[in-house]
Amino acid sequence: MAANIKFATDLVTFYAPEYWGGTGDMSDLERVLAQNGWTPERFWERIFADVKAAGLDGFEITFPPGNWHSAVEAFGSATGFADALRHHKLELCSGYMSNRIPGTTRYANIADPADHAVLAEMADQYAAFLATCQSDIMVVSLPLRTSLLADQPVFVDSRMAQTIADALNQMGYQARRRGVKVALHPEAFSMFRNSRDVDLFMLATDPSYVHLCPDTAQFVVAGSNPIDIVARHRDRVILTHWKDATGPAPIDTPIDDTIYDTQVQWFAAVGQGVVDWPAWTRLLRDIDYRGWAVFELDAARNPVADLKQIMAYIKSSLQHIYK
After folding, report:
1. Which pTM was predicted?
2. How many distinct structural domains can be found in the chain?
3. Predicted local distance difference test score (pLDDT) of residue 1
4. Cβ proximity of 59 and 11 under 8 Å
5. Cα(238)–Cα(200) distance, rounded to whole angstroms?
6. Does residue 270 fall inside a structural domain?
């Protein structure tokens, strides 16, 4: 399996304040880092050391503090960060794109055509960084849905999908000019969450510019089967996120500012939930997937031990399926 799939983790795995010597939830992390003297340089050196200690080949950068702006601040430039990666014998497998407009507190709205140009420019700048670091995948997600019985529901229909697809195509084009591919990633309570949403947005977007990053847990929590989805859209898959889940969330789960904390109750580490991992591995073998498996543990208090446990499970239970 190691010859075909390389292993990484999303940096959100390391976002528990306890891991950095503080208390609170993920929203307190940047405060904890500042109070405890974790400069960008120290932050990244610990990330490098512990990703390596977990036995992984690389990692996916994400929203702050482990984002590309922080990497540039710590090492002076994208080239400096790339040199640090090589020094630690690690790879940057991919980068998750935050929609927060640099230098502001505002998030660009992909469903609003007025923000499409700024999103394309942000994708271009991010792709330049990723390409310098020898990474060729940019991960993008969509906005949250509204609650099922919200007073003002937002309907994710073909008109909404086409508006969003226009932005995704432009972002994908700008990234492609840099040698980077855009991959759409599901979130269990977002506009891109389940089997129907994948069919809709894969149809609405241009396959030359928009690809798919399936996340096993997000699909399960949204009530869909990740294996069926990937089998149907195998030609669009360029990256895979591996996470387990305990089962679907109730359809009437309130979707508000607390949803990212709420959803953690349905997530689990690989091998500790309902995902059929042998079937998933057989599918990746059968479609000849050769790329990254990215683990995500949602702010683990002991990330190195947890990641080592996942790797042990893969070696003992899955590696013989796809070598």
Report:
1. 0.97
2. 1
3. 65
4. yes
5. 18
6. yes
Q: 19: which DSSP letter?
A: G
72 in a structural domain = yes
Instruction: Report d(CA 54, CA 236) in Å as an integer.
Output: 30
3 — pLDDT class (breaks 50, 70, 90): confident
Kindly report, residue by residue over 94-147, the tens digit of the pLDDT. 999 999 999 899 999 999 999 999 999 999 999 999 999 999 999 999 999 999
Q: Which helix (H) or strand (E) holds 166?
A: helix 158-177
What DSSP state is assigned to residue 181? E
Average pLDDT score over residue span 147-165: 97
Residue 273 bridge partners (DSSP): none
Residue 165 CA to residue 173 CA, distance in Å, equals 12
**Radius of gyration for the chain, computed over Cα atoms and rounded to the nearest angstrom:** 19
Q: 124 is written with which tokens?
A: 């271009």
Question: In CATH, what number is assigned to the domain containing residue 277?
Answer: 3.20.20.150
Euclidean distance between CA atoms 155 and 111, whole angstroms:
12
Strand order of the β-sheet with 181-184 is 210-212, 181-184, 137-140, 91-96, 58-61, 5-10, 291-295, 240-242
Crossing angle, helix 78-87 and helix 40-53, to 10 degrees? 30
Query: Is 323 among the domain residues?
Result: no
Q: Are 277 and 317 in contact (CB under 8 A)?
A: yes
Domain, as residue range, for 186? 5-317
Is 260 part of a structural domain of the chain? yes
The string over 207-219, giving b where at least 16 C-beta atoms fall within 10 Å of a residue's C-beta and e elsewhere, is: eebbbbbbbbbbb
